[in-house]
Amino acid sequence: MSTLEIKGLHVAVVTEEGSKEILRGVDLTINSGEVHAIMGPNGSGKSTLAYSIAGHPKYSITSGSVTLDGVDVLAMTVDERAKAGLFLAMQYPVEVPGVSVSNFLRTAVTAIRGEAPKIRTWVGEVKEAMSALSMDPAFSERSVNEGFSGGEKKRHEILQMELLKPKIAILDETDSGLDVDALRIVSEGVNRVKKNQDLGIMLITHYTRILRYIQPDFVHVFAGGRIVEEGGPELANKLEENGYAEYITA
Amino acid sequence: MSLAATSNYLTPTGREEPWRFTPLNRLAGLHDPAFTLHDRISLEPADIPAGVSITIEDAAAFAPLSKSEDQVVQRVREGVSKVLLVEIKDNAEIAEPIVLSRKILDMVPEISRVQVNAGLHSHATVVISNSGEGVFAEDIEFNLAPGSNLRFVTLQEWAGRAVHVARHHAIIAKDATFTSYVITVGGYLVRILPTVEYTGPGASADLYGLYFATDGQHLEHRVHVEHGVPGAKSRVNYKGALNGELARTVWIGDVFIRAAAQGTDTYELNRNLLLSHGARADSVPNLEIETGDIVGAGHASTTGRFDDEQLFYLMSRGIPSEEARRLVIRGFFAEIVSKLDLPEIEERIMSRIDRELAAVRS
Q1: Identity of the residue in A56, A97, A107 whose CB atom sits nearest the CB atom of B312
Q2: From CA B171, how far away is CA B178, in angstroms rounded?
Q3: pLDDT at B198
Q4: What is the separation of C-alpha B24 from the centre of its chain, rounded to a whole number of angstroms?
Q5: B339 is a domain residue
Q6: How near does any CA of chain B get to the CA of A81, in Å?
Q7: Which helix (H) or strand (E) holds B98?
Q8: What percent of chain A has pLDDT over 90?
Q9: Would you call A127 helix, strand, or coil by DSSP?
């Protein structure tokens, strides 16, 4: 049982025009096995929340805390956060030319587990995880994210999640750019990992579409850099009908 | 002006276009007639496969096959009495690389000439590996007979204050293919001129390069492809990384398509990765086209900083920053290195780069 606890989180981004506050006091607790949907209009700070927790250097934490099972996440380097059990599935996964998927996965798993996986079991493990996501085995010889379609990038993110076995995963607009088939495959993957590994999930999305596949336990409406309303799955239905207009006060 | 012009050897001053990037004070006299150069063939062949002969011949009997305006090359040609001759017999199919190694351990200015003749329809790979610390100038010529296929790999794994100036010139006949890999990962001053000319249609050259410069090193590669006959092809792809405040690289890519060279197909590419502030990469592609009747001609050059988003992505998967940097840099060079098909050399080069990256940052 793990708990990610975010308390009073304020985050600013430093640009050429100076420092701009984006998150204005976020409070959120995610336990193992729970799915929390974070829904909100574009520009509300949803991705900032995701990247701040993962430790992207662009964002500076001005106040508040993030802990995983009571341990200060904000004091950790980016790789330490991953080793502690956090995973961020990115909206725009980065291309790393010349580094094969298989080399990347093995390096990451070795770093997370603290020892290199046994070759024989590892090959089978990757094969099985790839086939569950309907990925062609030839995929593992390609360079990381280079020339991947939108769907391939997202499947590759979920593949990593499956192999790295995090405690808490943040899925940042994993549904964007996916057609119906890809959305189903990716969602099934998320549900499988959740079930098998008792994963806690922060599911960031703009649309309710993915919630038909991944059932949320909690829905949080995000606007203006904070959570403005919370509820159960029924809140998503309300958003589906009314949109975000009532939350945008500018 | 007039005084100097009457001499047939002009000492470069650094103002000439071909010398403007080169720090002449590092040449240790290689360019300066006031310094004596020593005629010495220090290349040692490993096993010589069947179908190949390696001999030392009188320079007079094996005159240069090409002209060179480079002053250091001219000094080499005037100064050597012997030539190392590599002959690959007609139709020879040689799977194992022909390896020649040189390790210089003194700073006595040394010059040498090498001629490689690839026989009709022969297939071979020649590796010339340079290491140690010395002052050295060489003139290598490759003469490719029709239908031959020659791969040339040269490694500059110099240490410390090594100075190395070289010209690698390939003369490529009809339907012959020349592929070169110029790999430079060390040296105080390295200046290499990989040059190519064609004598018949269907001739092709793939020129690859990899360089990695650390603090205080000047690594310069000046490619010149001379399309003087119809129907020849060239591809140039050089990739470099620089790490250290005074790391310096120069890449020049001169491609000339003369009026007679209809049907030419050429593309050249240079990419540089700056890993630290203060490093400087000069990249000058230069394409001159005298006929419109060609298949294609293009060039691209990019010089960029290390991508922090790549670093973040890898680290967010638990990979520590040092290892993430190493992966990205290995990945950057993989395009060149993976083509070598010589795993031992590949690993040696990449682990040297790894070590130097670690040394600079610790």
Answers
A1: A56
A2: 9
A3: 98
A4: 19
A5: no
A6: 7
A7: strand B98-104
A8: 88
A9: helix
Strand locations in chain A, DSSP E?
3-15, 18-31, 35-39, 59-68, 71-72, 86-89, 96-100, 143-144, 168-172, 200-205, 218-223, 226-231
> A91, A176 in Cβ contact below 8 A?
yes
* A-B C-beta contacts closer than 8 Å: 81
Whether residue B319 and residue A79 make contact (CB cut-off 8 A), yes or no, is: yes
pTM reported for the whole predicted model: 0.90
B24: which DSSP letter? G
pLDDT tens per residue, range A63-105: 999 999 999 999 999 999 999 999 999 999 999 999 999 999 9
Q: Which of A67, A66, A48 is nearest to A58 (CA)?
A: A48
> Is B58 a member of any domain?
yes
Distance CA A93, CA B283 (A): 30
CB atoms A94 and B310 under 8 Å: yes
B318 has a chain A CB within 8 A of its CB? yes
Asked if the C-beta of B323 comes within 8 angstroms of chain A's C-beta atoms, the answer is yes
Query: B309 to chain A: which residues are within 8 Å by CB?
Result: 94
The token pair that represents B283 in the structure block = 């990249």
User: Which residue in B309, B318, B334 is closest to A164 by CB distance?
Assistant: B318
Return the closest-CA partner of residue B199 out of B234, B169, B225, B232: B232
Do the domain assignments include residue B230?
Answer: yes
- Indicate if the pLDDT at residue A156 is higher than 60: yes
Q: How many C-beta atoms lie closer than 10 Å to residue A75's C-beta?
A: 11
Q: Which residues pair with B135 in a beta bridge?
A: B163
What's chain A's average pLDDT?
94
- The span from the CA of B232 to the CA of B248, in Å, is 33
Output the pLDDT for position B8: 57
Q: Which residue on chain A is closest to B306 by alpha carbon?
A: A96
10-residue averages of pLDDT along chain B (362 residues): 45 90 93 89 92 96 96 95 97 97 92 98 98 96 98 96 97 98 97 98 98 96 98 98 95 98 98 94 96 95 93 98 93 93 94 85 50
Structural domain span for residue B237: 2-306
Show Cβ contacts of residue B311 under 8 Å, excluding neighbours closer than 6 positions. B321, B324, B325, B328
- Report how far Cα A154 is from the mean position of its chain's Cα atoms: 11
A33 burial level (CB within 10 Å; 0-12, 13-18, 19+): middle
User: Domain count of chain B?
Assistant: 1
Greatest Cα-to-Cα distance within chain A, rounded to the nearest angstrom: 57
CB B318 within 8 A of CB A160: no
- How far, in whole angstroms, is CA B26 from its chain's centroid? 19
Predicted confidence at residue A42, as pLDDT, reads 87
User: Tokens representing B141?
Assistant: 């010529």
Domain contains B32: yes
Paired strand residues for B163: B135, B189
Q: Tell which of B313, B329, B350 to mutate to test the A interface (max A CBs under 10 Å).
A: B313
Q: Which two tokens stand for residue B336?
A: 């060149």
ipTM score of complex: 0.97
- Amino acid letter for position A157: E
